[in-house]
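Per your request, structure below.
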């Protein structure tokens, strides 16, 4: 499975592509950070991110995209920029029919380091070890993008099992409701026949 991991942001947007092998084996294929100037207009910044992501999608052809889920922070403008960048990326994936999964920072940290409260240095260290990289990926946005991709590779089998279980449960609920509706209709028909 080829996974594109993205750490969205307006100033720095981390992009990575990894490929999962057997078991927990993961190989890094590419990593980069898209930078946009803070004094540029918002639409131009989003366009720059969109153009870079479109190029990566066309070049690497990932099977799935893993994006960091935006969560509440003290700085509202940072959250808004991150959410807008994530939206542009999700839209580009949707146009190509590529599944998008969002992972919280604590999910990513827990998957990669075993500690949902790990700091950036610990995440970078573990990403370097897991991918057997010669040097630590920098800046932190690059390491975070790789961590997101690794997290999805390792969580994907569980996510697939959960989706299958939810689909089965929904199918069983529909069958049960149909059975109840049929029994209710039979009971009403029997009551109507008894009155005659």
């Amino acid at each position: 499975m080829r996974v594109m991991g993205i750490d969205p942001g307006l100033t720095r947007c981390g992009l990575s592509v990894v490929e999962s092998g057997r078991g927990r084996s993961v190989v890094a294929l590419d990593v980069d950070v898209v930078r946009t100037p803070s004094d540029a207009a918002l639409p131009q910044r989003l366009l720059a991110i969109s153009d870079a992501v479109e190029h990566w999608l066309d070049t690497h052809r990932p099977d799935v995209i893993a994006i960091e889920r935006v969560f509440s922070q003290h700085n509202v403008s940072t959250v808004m920029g991150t959410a807008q960048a994530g939206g542009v990326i999700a839209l580009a994936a949707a146009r190509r029919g590529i599944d998008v999964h969002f992972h919280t920072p604590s999910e990513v940290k827990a998957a990669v380091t075993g500690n949902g409260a790990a700091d950036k240095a610990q995440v970078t260290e573990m990403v370097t070890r897991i991918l057997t990289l010669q040097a630590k990926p920098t800046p932190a946005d690059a390491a975070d993008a790789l961590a997101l991709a690794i997290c999805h590779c390792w969580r994907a089998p569980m996510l697939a099992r959960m989706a299958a279980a939810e689909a089965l449960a929904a199918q069983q609920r529909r069958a049960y409701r149909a059975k109840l509706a049929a029994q209710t209709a039979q009971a009403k028909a029997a009551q109507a026949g008894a009155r005659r």
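DSSP finds five helices and five strands in the chain.

Regards,
D.
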